[in-house]
Design brief:
The structure holds 2 protein chains of 2 kinds. Chain A has helices at 15-22, 28-31, 43-55, 93-103, 110-130, 162-179, 245-252, 316-320, 330-342, 359-365, 367-385, 440-460, 473-492, 498-513, 519-539, 551-575, 598-601; strands at 35-39, 58-62, 80-81, 155-156, 183-186, 189-197, 200-208, 214-218, 221-224, 257-258, 263-269, 292-296, 313-314, 354-357, 394-403, 406-407, 420-422, 589-590, 593-594, 603-608, 617-622. Chain A is of the alpha+beta class. Among the domains of chain A are: 265-401, Succinate dehydrogenase/fumarate reductase flavoprotein, catalytic domain (Flavocytochrome C3, Chain A, domain 1, Alpha-Beta Complex), CATH 3.90.700; 473-603, Fumarate reductase/succinate dehydrogenase flavoprotein-like, C-terminal domain (Methane Monooxygenase Hydroxylase, Chain G, domain 1), CATH 1.20.58. Chain B is α+β, with helices and mostly antiparallel strands. The chains are: A alpha+beta, B alpha+beta.
């Protein structure tokens, strides 16, 4: 596998301009002859589909939800970063770049991160022009708030539903193009394989989730914007439908998978209440602007929060990280919470929780001000827990939230398969080993609105438009394989349900490849997962047929892929013998702080599929830090 | 706790000629329901039991399970999204029901939302209404700076109140006319209060109303059931705004194709 990141030469500030000039253009009259298939309709997918159609390309867009507006970007709460420096508080493109590289624990590609910081300002302009109702001040200008890992206020927000508002902006742009006939939309359609012709991605095979039909679509390029793989843990803040299938099947066709072990555990989620739990709910990081995180100083202190006097409370984030306090980055805040729970100081019935307390802010600003900032989050918390966060502190605990790993892409966002581009959370490029809050929306939209419209032209200019049609034998062959997989899943008729297996996998992953990992646990997981997978293929029960709306069958296909993917994730975690960002190897730490090994691991690990039952090959893309110098990441 | 469920089961897709098809209510008893479960988690438990017994699980739409994606939506005891105000079915918890409760669960019912299977309906009519004009016609590019046009906070807040719509369709399901006017009004109101959206206000009002009529949604007769069930508590004032915008658009500019003739006052 050849890994050429195609990073343009020259100073980091000029790389994107240089690349845009180098890229070949497709002349406007020719654009309409090319067809681009966009899989996924979240921020990255919808933005890409709309923008490519505006340029004149024919676009087909696919999503498994019943409407493109429901992609999981919609659930993002807190905000989107942009280096606008509207606060006059010292922000700049360079500072956002610096914060993101440092926040990612020096495991991201500098050139990509710089471009992301540059484009961040355009995103806000674009969103406002679309009518996204961001929060405003009385003077009519845009409001900002702070997020973890930054000492400036650069986060734009729309109450607690920034994701929905930005996605509705992208969805509106996409809808406009659908209405104009420039995009053909295929909702309730799941991509199950990518079709390669002479090594290039020239189509996809999908299943119509309503009628069950397996269909082929041909295009001149394929764009995957299919999100992350957090649901490998079963319990996560991801929507139930989020899955690894599109990226995993692309991996099995030859796309390199980078850093699968980098997963983000978000510190502020509502703790698990019982075995019936189907997903975890995030409480936005923005709450840490005004909430203080604490546990009792004494282990085993079972008094009610309000009965614990001030002197017996440990505001552990403020104590350990005085300069960032409650706004320490996510990986660090999560680990600190785990540590106090491990010490027996966790709160709630299970002891797996810490308090997020608004008492002081309510006293300082009044209940009304807090309600205006976080009303919908407080409402959601009260709904789920039946507790009132205005009168008693929230109970929170870390949960799987985001995955920094994904398909490897070069600077143009092209994977190791020519013609296969990967955007948003589905790729690996910008967040290194830990993503800062309010940066996912930024990346999804930057990739979709402002990167792919340029870089895809560079590829298409070298391709003959419409050269491959679905009558090419490769389509029938790929569809046949997909069909066969579906038949196998339906034919087992064993005893255990798909969810049963998914939960079992989730437990293995959380125990051995969750917030803390070690050699012994990972070795154990690498024995347990194949055993579970074997049992799945022997004993799973998928009711119904393939020729109908069959939600069990949809889940079965996704869980089958997670059962393979989980193994790769553990393997990657085992091979990365260092701690960095969200990847915490217990063997490499300094009293709970991650200890990187820059000498041996200052690289992205890229896995190549080598065939069924064979160990995948590990390749590396070395990372060079020319602008932000490698240093111990400190938030103290 | 224990509950008795009556769930709508329907295998074949509804058509204009036969909306009900083979559909019927089926009774299920469910034990060991935790009050902390969400309503959908309770349905998960039912489905796991059905699969183990060799029966088909109940199909229902759901995704984020935190009340924002708008996928879920079932009529519970006659009320879209169930008994709690301002709450989607995924955020409704079993503690809202008493032990031993009998609960009736049905899909949205509206001619414009054919049932696909069991509790799953086809809401693509909403997407088509949006495609008719619920957007600002601006391409990706380099618009002016985001702070170039100040927007009064009150206006931005009003736009936001409408933009908070999650497109679940409960408003349509609650309305005896199966009207989509709360949904359409929310789109119109969202853009109406922002300077960026005002440019196309006449075109938008006209096109959205035409699209909503073409999809077979009814009209509003001021029962306000939609507001009562809206999980995002979108106020009916957006319907008033829609009506006003529509009338205004008719006065200001005749629909394309119809030439204004003199002397009509």
């Amino acid at each position: 596998m050849k890994l050429d990141a195609k990073i343009p030469a020259g100073p980091v500030q000029e790389k994107w301009d240089a690349r845009k000039f180098e890229l070949k253009l497709v002349n406007p009259a020719n654009k309409r002859k090319y067809k681009v298939l966009v899989v996924g309709s979240g921020l990255a997918g919808a933005a890409a589909a709309a923008s490519l159609a505006e340029l004149g390309y024919q676009v087909e867009c696919f999503c498994f939800q019943d409407s493109p507006r429901r992609a999981h970007s919609i659930a993002a709460q807190g905000g989107i970063n942009a280096a606008k420096n509207y606060r006059n508080d010292g922000d700049s493109i360079w500072r956002l770049f610096y914060d993101t590289v440092k926040g990612g624990d020096f495991r991201a590609r500098e050139a990509n991160v710089y471009r992301l910081a540059q484009l961040s300002v355009d995103i806000i302009d674009q969103a406002v022009a679309q009518g996204v109702p961001f929060a405003r001040e009385y003077g009519g200008l845009l409001d900002n708030r702070s997020f973890g890992g930054a000492q400036v206020s650069r986060t734009f927000y729309a109450r607690g539903q920034t994701g929905q508002q930005l996605l509705l902006g992208a969805y509106a742009a996409l809808s406009r193009q659908i209405g104009l006939g420039a995009v053909k939309m295929f909702p309730r359609t799941e991509m199950l394989d990518v079709v390669l012709v002479d090594g290039h991605a020239k189509g996809i095979v999908v299943r119509d989730l309503v009628g069950g039909e397996i269909r082929s679509h041909a295009g001149d390029a394929v764009v995957l914007a299919t999100g992350g793989y957090g649901n490998v843990f079963y319990l996560s803040t991801n929507a139930k439908g989020c899955n690894v299938t599109a990226t995993w099947r692309a991996y099995k066709r030859g796309a390199g998978f980078a850093n699968p072990c980098y997963t983000q555990i978000h510190p502020t989620c509502i703790p698990v209440s019982g075995d019936h739990q189907s997903k975890l709910t995030l409480m936005s990081e923005s709450l840490r602007n005004d909430g203080r995180v604490w546990v009792p100083k004494q282990a085993g202190d079972k008094r009610r929060a309000q009965d614990i006097p001030e002197a017996e409370r440990d505001y552990f984030l403020e104590r350990k990280y005085p300069s960032f306090g409650n706004l320490a980055p996510r990986d660090i805040a999560s680990r600190a919470a785990k540590q106090v729970c491990d010490e027996g100081r966790g709160i709630g019935e299970t002891g797996l929780g810490v308090y997020l307390d608004f008492r002081d802010s309510i006293a300082r600003l009044g209940k009304e001000a807090i309600a205006a900032r976080y009303g919908n989050l407080f409402h959601m918390y009260a709904k789920i827990t039946a507790e009132d966060p205005y009168s008693q502190p929230m109970r929170i605990f870390p949960a799987v939230h985001y995955t920094m790993g994904g398909l490897w892409v070069d600077y143009d966002l092209q994977s190791t398969i020519p013609g296969l581009f990967v955007l948003g959370e589905a790729n690996f490029s910008d967040h290194g080993a830990n993503r800062l809050g309010a940066s996912a929306l930024m990346q999804g939209l930057a990739d979709g609105y402002f990167v792919i419209p340029y870089t895809i032209g560079g590829y298409l200019a070298g391709q003959r438009a419409g050269a491959i049609k679905t009558d090419h034998p490769q389509f029938a062959a790929t569809a046949g394989e997909v069909d066969e997989l579906t038949r196998r899943l339906l034919s087992i008729q064993g005893k255990r349900t798909v969810d049963d297996f998914h939960k079992a996998l989730g437990k293995i992953m959380w125990q051995h490849c969750g917030m803390a990992r070690n050699e012994r646990g990972l070795q154990q997981a690498l024995r347990d997962i194949p055993a579970l997978r074997e049992e799945f293929w022997r004993d799973v029960r998928v009711p119904g047929s393939g020729a109908e709306l069959n939600q069990s069958l949809e889940k079965a296909g996704r869980v089958a892929d997670f059962l393979e993917f989980g193994e790769l994730m553990c393997r990657d975690a085992l091979e990365r013998r260092e701690s960095c960002g969200g990847h915490f190897r217990e063997e490499w730490q300094d009293e709970g702080e991650a200890r990187r090994d820059d000498e041996n691991f200052c690289h992205a690990a890229v896995w190549e599929y080598t065939g069924p039952g064979r160990a995948p090959a590990r390749h590396v893309e070395p990372l060079a830090f020319e602008n932000v110098h490698l240093a111990v990441r400190s938030y103290k | 706790m224990k509950v008795v469920l009556h769930v709508w089961r329907q295998q074949r897709r509804s058509t204009k000629q036969d909306f009900v098809q083979d559909g019927r209510m089926v009774r299920y008893e469910l034990d060991h329901v935790s009050p902390d479960m969400s309503f959908l988690e309770m349905l998960d438990v039912l489905n796991e039991q059905l699969i183990r017994k060799g029966e088909d699980p109940v199909a229902f739409d759901h995704d984020c399970r935190e009340g924002i994606c708008g996928s879920c939506g079932v009529v519970i005891d006659g009320v879209p999204h169930g008994p709690e105000r301002g709450t989607t079915a995924c955020q409704l918890h079993m503690r809202s029901f008493r032990d031993g409760a009998e609960i009736w669960v049905e899909p949205w019912r509206a001619a414009a939302f054919p049932v696909v299977r069991d509790l799953v309906v086809d809401r693509s009519a909403f997407d088509r209404v949006v495609q008719a004009g619920a957007f600002v016609s601006v391409n990706t590019g380099a618009p002016q700076d985001a702070n170039a046009i100040p927007v009064p906070k009150a206006a931005a807040d009003r736009a936001f109140d409408a933009a908070t719509c999650i497109g679940c369709g409960a408003c349509v399901a609650a309305c005896k006319n199966a009207s989509a006017m709360l949904f359409v009004g929310a789109k119109v109101s969202h853009f109406l209060h922002l300077p960026q959206g005002r440019v196309e206000r006449e075109r938008r009002a006209r096109n959205l109303v035409a699209a909503m009529d073409a999809e077979g949604f009814g009209n509003c007769t001021n029962q306000n059931e939609c507001e009562a069930v809206c999980p995002k508590e979108i106020p009916v004032r957006v319907i008033a705004e829609l009506n006003r915008e529509f009338v205004r658009a008719r006065l200001i500019e005749e629909p394309v194709g119809k030439k204004r003739v003199g002397g009509d006052g």
